[in-house]
From TrEMBL:
Basic residues composition-biased segments: 1-10
Segment forming the signal sequence: none
GO biological process assignments: chromatin remodeling
Keyword Transcription: yes
Record protein name field: Vps72/YL1 C-terminal domain-containing protein
Taxon lineage: Eukaryota, Fungi, Dikarya, Basidiomycota, Agaricomycotina
Domain of life, source organism: Eukaryota
Major localization listed first in the record, in broad terms: nucleus
Sections of the chain in a coiled coil: none
GO terms under cellular component: Ino80 complex
Amino acid sequence: PPKGAGRKKGTASDGSATPHLPTLAEQLSYGHLPRPFKNPYYNKNVNRRAKNLKAVLSQEREREKAERERRRLLKQGKAEAEGQMELDSTGGAEDRALAMDEEEDVPTYTAIEAPPSVWPPRHYCDITGLEAPYTDPATGLRFYDKSVYQLIKGLSTSTAKEYLSGIHRRFHWSFFDADLVIARGVSTVVK
């Protein structure tokens, strides 16, 4: 049998059927409301596709190469102008040529080296790994609250040195969980 042969075609309504009642989702929908923040003349370009990483990196290399060449020509032009003005210079041209070759540290897609951050470094608790605003003056261990400080006060100097060297860092959670629960006064017994 041909496809759709078993289906009955809908009859044309003569107006006697009940009109379509909107569902609750249609009633609460914001889809039909105007959007004043959208540009009515915007046409999305459906033919434009996202570039893959290889294309982006090759374009970035070309851009960097063109920028280096532009800077080199600019510096070369300045050096020639200075050379014409300084008739009795001796050996300074070589130093300027070396200074011209130095690259500026500009972070790009291909070279992500950037200058150091201007934000202060974050310090973390040597016992728990949480952010630590305090340092114990006797041992030099960092801690984040008084319960950890109580634990640090009970440590021997050799154990404190081990924490400072990083030996206990991989064991800190299993070592500290029971003490943390007791220090906070949390009851582990469920009634």
